[in-house]
């Protein structure tokens, strides 16, 4: 691609100046439409060392109201960043609806540099590429415009620029050892870049190779592509996207109505004995998890008043408080709602060796948001596959994923609602929304059955906790957590 790329013919100086001014004004005018249509835009600038990425970002953003964009420079990940999933820091940077995020280098630079410096083997490279393809496709499916630019200069031009920078004490710091290495191994780098372009090219987020020998000409090319892409995205903003077929292996699952709740009880004595034993074992396992740097994600969903909070409490009682965090998930805040629905969960992922416990989860997309009309039908139907991809990403990273559905019947829920309403110290636990949701029990049950059937994968299966007797459910949850940790360790 780099060797045979056919660049547009550069216009004459005066024509170039006029065209550049027109494109700058167009981008300035488009930003209000972007805000009005709530179009989020990710602009990735990649390229050769000293190809002018930073300078070009600076020129482009002059045409945009500073309230509508942010710029991030993403160098190679630090040791701390390496303790999170590969996509963590990239998902963290995505913009809110109606805004731009410009990235001075990103996932391409990290992956290709890892290959060139022999830090990534072929298997890891393929895994990273697959992650990137899913990431970019998920963004575009959820309404993001993803623009990927590569600033191309020749080997000779790169050497000239590096020499000029090093000739001045004020600019020599801008030349890194890797820049020099890259120039010395130009052909090898070009080969790796070309393979990456081929592996990560798809119509919704194509690569644009920019002739970066001249700053003004490069800026004009970028602005023309940006403006045309924005206009197309605004025209297509109401179109639905295809719903991908699930390709992940599923674990066997049952409908909630087929799971018996009777006979799942423990005496107080049995409960105390098992609780003490399991909590002691979990405490020891937590130390080993931390030492071996294995991340754990425990996700809770279930009926209102099913006992999620008490269940979580019995697990956390035996954990080192420095090594876990519980995330109670409520309705999304405005800044969360304005991003990809998984953003607020990506940003809560644990470091290696730590445990994240979610009281309500990303499955709200296919339950509450589905039934209350907070997202479109295309959105929630597409979400099953997006969630499976999300959990596969976490599983491939090395996380243990344990998902619980806490199950009760309607009579038990009514008794607990009534008790909460009639007990002053418990009244904060019951809301009008809880009663409204109860009226939709059958609709929710259908949605939960579909959710479990479509997202109980072999790497992240669902576990149903029969919770008419809360003590039974707590012991079952502890037993499953202990067993899953022991299997991995």
Primary descriptors:
Rossmann fold, five-stranded parallel β-sheet, alpha/beta, 19 helices, 489 residues, 2 domains
Q: Please mark out the parts with pLDDT under 50 across 5 or more consecutive residues, or reply none.
A: none
Question: In percent, how much strand structure appears in the residues?
Answer: 5-15%
CATH topology of the largest domain: Rossmann fold
Count of discrete structural domains: 2
Q: How far is the N terminus from the C terminus? A: 46 Å
The 3D shape can be described as elongated
What is the arithmetic mean of pLDDT?
95
Percent helix, as a range, is 40-55%
Helices and strands, in order, run as HEHEHEHHEHHHEHHEHEHHEHHEHHHEH
Q: Which architecture of the largest domain does the CATH hierarchy give at level 2?
A: 3-Layer(aba) Sandwich
- Count of alpha/pi helices: 19
Taking the sheet with the most strands, its summary is: 5 strands, parallel
Radius of gyration: 26 Å
The count of DSSP E runs of length 2 or more, i.e. the number of strands, is 10
